[in-house]
Amino acid sequence: xxxxxxxxxxxxxxxxxxxxxxxxxxxxxxxxxxxxxxxxxxxxxxxxxxxxxxxxxxxxxxxxxxxxxxxxxxxxxxxxxxxxxxxxxxxxxxxxxxxxxxxxxxxxxxxxxxxxxxxxxxxxxxxxxxxxxxxxxxxx
Length: 140
What we know:
It contains seven helices and five strands; from the N terminus they run H-E-H-E-H-E-H-H-E-H-E-H. The protein is of the alpha/beta class. The chain has one domain (25-128): Oxidized Rhodanese, domain 1 (3-Layer(aba) Sandwich). A five-stranded parallel sheet has the order 1-5-4-2-3. Helix 1 (12-22) packs across helix 6. The chain starts with 11 loop residues before the first helix and ends in a 12-residue tail after the last helix. InterPro entries: Rhodanese-like_dom (IPR001763), Rhodanese-like_dom_sf (IPR036873).
């Protein structure tokens, strides 16, 4: 069985490229402006807790991608009200560099969230532009 060419299915890059066709992307500058002007109902960070603790965007809600479906579904015991009550709100999804946020935004769309965008460049680009970052561990 040869897997290096991924003859068995789609490559991760192909899955992300398909999500990019379905999910609107905004720049970190656009995200910052929307957050400052109150246009975003929620900034959702889908990175892992260890990434979050190293720094995150002020006001973001942590929902690691591996738990996203459970956090976004109000019928589960893991539901996050700060997400489930925002089905029609403008949601900006962020990750480290923009791939996971595309996939997470596509998932939210499939769950009925109506105004979801991915922040291209992710937290790395946000940090590179020296935009505000919180670094307090344990703040979730």
